[in-house]
Amino acid sequence: MAFLETGSLTFNLVLFAACVLVILGTGTRITRIVDQLADRIRIGEALAGGVLMGAATSLSGSVLSVTAAWNGHPELAVSNALGGIAVQTVFLAIADITYRRANLEHAAASAENMMQTSLLIALLALIALAPLLPDFTLWEIHPITFCLLLLYLYGLGLVKRVRDTPLWRATKTRSTRPDIPEVRNIRLSLPLLLVKFLALMLVLGTSGWLLEHVASGIAEQTGLSETMIGVLLTATSTSLPELVTCLAAVRQGALTLAVGGIIGGNAFDTLFTAASDIAYRDGSIYHAISDTTLAWTVLTLLMSAFLMMGLIRREEQGFARIGFESLAVLLLYALGLVVLLI
């Protein structure tokens, strides 16, 4: 957009803040609707959080990444996707601190959330592997992109199968909060809920499209790298709905939705990279990213592994209301920021 390229830095920063406020407000409203849809169509909070909330709250970020790739900014596209996954994992640790009864990984334990975390780790591993493979493409698309899409669909099927016919169950304790549908939500109008959901998704998508142009302008005007802009600025701002929806779900007692929304949303966010590779017309996007972005991929993979440990270990009460694994996630993210800023 030409007027953003010629506009002042102050104008772009104000417009950036306005987009963030729109994303924040829309993300807040969509939480309750997703919770109601989960009960109304009986798919469970974990799957609803991963697919519906993950897709909705991540839409602004996905549009930003795809637009950046299409406009020839591979670093911004991939760093925005991976930075969003990292910061959203941090948001889960923050939600863990706010939930006072027990550690969130303990209270929201479910086979579905564990399966979604396993899927996330596998998807991130594929992204980390891609730059090490030959720079070979089909129709300017790297084969890893097809693998990401197929693995994601396969993983969703496993999550649903685990919910419908579980062969593993979390031991119930006094702090466990099971996913039980609310009777009043089952009686709500499904068409009306879907219309509200799609309308809010449209707002988020439009905000993400505008935010990409603003972010590119800020990068040019400030001289900051696209990786830094992606990880610190756009990834955090487009991920704010995940923070808001996660904290809102915790307050509502929908703990499985809170954890599933973040983990499933992170798995969905890996598809940003696949979609960006399709949109990028100069070959494999995985071979156009820097070592710094690749390091963030590995760091995010490590953070997800610690999250998986927390879900399996299920420490009921940690130090200062936070489990060891959540603390490790916070420290790893801080380490990544230090490396990025050096």
Structure description:
It is a single chain. The protein is mainly α and 342 residues long. It has one domain (2-167, 188-341): NCX, central ion-binding region (A middle domain of Talin 1, Up-down Bundle), CATH 1.20.1420.30. The protein is built from 15 helices and no strands. The protein has helices at residues 2-6, 9-40, 45-57, 59-70, 74-98, 104-107, 111-129, 143-164, 183-186, 190-222, 226-238, 240-252, 255-279, 291-313, 324-341. Helix 7 (111-129) runs antiparallel to helix 8 (143-164). The radius of gyration is 19 Å and the shape is globular. The two termini are 32 Å apart. The model has no long low-confidence stretch (mean pLDDT 78).
Descriptors for this entry?
342 residues; mainly alpha; A middle domain of Talin 1; NaCa_Exmemb; transmembrane; membrane; K/Na/Ca-exchanger; NCX_ion-bd_dom_sf
Radius of gyration: 19 Å
Strand content: under 5%
Which class in CATH terms?
Mainly Alpha
The total of helices stands at 15
The overall pLDDT, averaged over residues, is 78
At CATH level 3, the topology is A middle domain of Talin 1
Q: Which residues sit in consecutive blocks of at least 5 with pLDDT less than 50?
A: none
Structural class: mainly alpha
- What helical percentage do the residues reach? over 70%
Question: What's the name of the CATH homologous superfamily?
Answer: NCX, central ion-binding region
Order of helices and strands: HHHHHHHHHHHHHHH
In the CATH hierarchy, the architecture is Up-down Bundle
Count of domain modules: 1
Give the overall form: globular
Instruction: Give the total of beta strands.
Output: 0
CA-CA gap between termini: 32 Å
Q: Biggest sheet, in brief?
A: none
